[in-house]
Every structure is written in structure tokens, then in C-alpha cells.
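Appendix B. Raw example, untouched.
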Amino acid sequence: MKSTPGEALFRFFQTDLNESNTIELSFTPNIPIEEKQYKHISHNLLLTVTGYLLILNLESLDNNKQITFCIPDIKNVELNNESLDDNYCKYYLNCHVRTHYYEYQELIEMKNAGIEISSRKIEEILRNINMTYRIIIKK
């Protein structure tokens, strides 16, 4: 079975995670504020019915405190082309926001049933249906 470009990029992402020593990320999606570097202890990437779930086990470089951070509902991964380096890769993890996704589905069903739905309401939900996490992997 031939893989899609997205699947191939996901494999590169997994390989980079496997080879990483340090991960830099923000716990806030869409706006990478207060990014911090963590020692990468381990990770697990699971395929679920709503997308991939990334579980990162990390250790703070500031205080050696171990934490677990999860990124749910990953639909695709993008590589920042400017980060192509043997020791450094920057990825964007595009994730569904389930509440907005289900709200959008419900509005479409209502519209199909003949109920008038404001196009502004649909556009508002579509603007917020995804969130993006940036993760910088250092080897």
C-alpha cells in the first residue's frame, strides 16, 4: 500500500522524536508563548478514532521535575522548512478542537434539515475548529 505525503511526514516526525534529547514547546496552542525546553524522557504516539494522541514524558531543565504532556486529536504534522538541520527540527501539530468540530457537525445537520443557520456562525466555528502546537526537537 502506497503512503501519502502526510503519512511519510508523520514517520519523519516519529523518527525525529525517537532521536531527540531536548524538546522545546509551549503548553498554549496557537500562540507559542513561554516556550520552555525539556529533556525528552519518552513518548508514545497512539492512533485514536479522533486522530493521533501524543504523550510526552519530559523533565524540566530548570528544576528536574518530571511532567507528562498530552497533545490530542492530531490530524496532521507540518515541518517548518526553515528548520531543516541535522540537529534541529520544528514541527507544527494541527489538532481538531472537538467541541467546535461537533458543534460544526450539528450546525450542518440543522442546515440540511432546513433550519436557517447564519453563515457568520459557521465561519466563526470554522476559524476555531483547529489548534496548532509548535514543537522544536533537538537531537
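End of appendix B.
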